[in-house]
Amino acid sequence: MTHNNDQHYITKVINGDTNAFAYLVDNYKNMVFSLAFKMTKKREEAEEISQDTFIKAYKNLAKFKGDSKFSTWLYRIAYHTSLDAIKKQKNNNNTFEINEIMFNQIAAVEDILQGIARKERSVLMDKCLQKLPHEERSLIWMFYYDELSLKEIIEVTSLSEANLKVKLHRGRKKLLAIVKDNLAPEMIENYGRK
């Protein structure tokens, strides 16, 4: 999908061709749903967030100036819509506090993960990611899985570069601690020897 292609359909919608918006929805619905689902972990809520995101995008399409990619602009709307939905949930018990982690412990966990088969690692990482607080989970997801650049994540989240780097670092440390806590002791012992 090219930036010019998006702009062509955006211009058509702004000029009154409401059907042209379906093209944008079709091309970005998976991206928006995936982000919403990763942040809320609830399919129905992710579907509602997706609908709300596209409604907001449609209503504000004339405000899109093309300074960034349309996908980044839409991702930002989806991110903030997801955050709003999470804030409405009073019973968000998905917080994880952690004591300071020693650097060598992080290195040991990373070494262990290198020895685990790729599929096992994927399942383990997804399970552990779900235990992170929503903000850290979404930042790690954007950076490592969606492969957004720091600049794009800054556009999406409105965080400063320094704050984003700190949050990514802390999120990664927490994730590694969660991974260590979720590895079976025999896996640690087995892979720790290699």
Notes on the protein architecture:
- The protein is mainly α and 194 residues long.
- The chain folds into two domains: 3-88, RNA polymerase sigma factor, region 2, helix turn helix motif (Rna Polymerase Sigma Factor, Chain: A, Orthogonal Bundle), CATH 1.10.1740.10; 103-192, Up-down Bundle (Butyryl-CoA Dehydrogenase, subunit A, domain 3).
- Helix content is 74%, strand content 0%.
- It contains ten helices and no strands.
- The protein has helices at residues 3-14, 21-40, 43-59, 70-88, 103-115, 118-129, 134-145, 150-157, 161-182, 185-192.
- The longest helix is centred in the C-terminal third of the chain and has 22 residues, at 161-182.
- The chain is elongated, with a radius of gyration of 19 Å.
- Mean pLDDT is 77; it is low at 90-108 and 189-194.
